[in-house]
Automatic annotation (TrEMBL):
This is DUF4199 domain-containing protein. The chain crosses the membrane at residues 89-108. The lineage of its organism: Bacteria, Pseudomonadati, Bacteroidota, Flavobacteriia, Flavobacteriales. Keywords: Membrane, Transmembrane, Transmembrane helix.
């Protein structure tokens, strides 16, 4: 049982160091591997401010993309109706589509900056990666309902 605990502890220690995130070309990478939005949200759960900012940016992206698509779709549909029938073109649908496209521009702007800021906040919250026993370790005596013990942080 002690050997199993030791193996699990060593394995847990080896993967416990968080890796920094990189935001390039609209994608988030960790150790050169691209992360999905779901994986990024799971990583950012430890830093609530970064997670909130990331979710806010993704909400802006979804809402702005929906409005842009709705505007383009309405304009194209009205154009198709105007070309295939005797209806006078442009109608109110075209103007509504152009309006939706115009509204989506300020909504979509600033989302990349928000994602970059959330990644920067997350990376700033990470502890320094180079941990050695020589200068960065703590030895504490702890007491809880199970008894007294030693806790080593390194």
């Amino acid at each position: 049982m002690k050997q199993l605990f030791l193996i699990v502890a060593i394995f847990g220690f080896s993967i416990s160091f968080a890796q920094k995130l990189e935001y390039t070309d609209g994608k988030i990478f960790q150790d050169g591997e691209q992360l999905s939005s779901f994986e990024t949200k799971n990583l950012m759960k430890t830093d609530l401010k970064a997670l909130h900012l990331f979710k806010k940016a993704k909400t802006k992206e979804s809402l702005g993309g929906f409005l842009l698509g709705l505007g383009i779709g309405g304009t194209v549909a009205d154009l198709a109706m105007g070309l295939t029938s005797d209806v006078k073109y442009p109608t109110a649908l075209t103007y509504a589509g152009v309006g939706l496209m115009a509204i989506s521009i300020p909504i979509l702007s600033g989302r990349k900056k928000m994602v970059q800021e959330s990644v920067d906040i997350y990376n700033a919250g990470l502890q320094e990666q180079k941990k050695t026993l020589g200068d960065n370790f703590e030895l504490n005596i702890v007491n809880n309902s199970n008894g007294v013990g030693l806790r080593i942080n390194f």
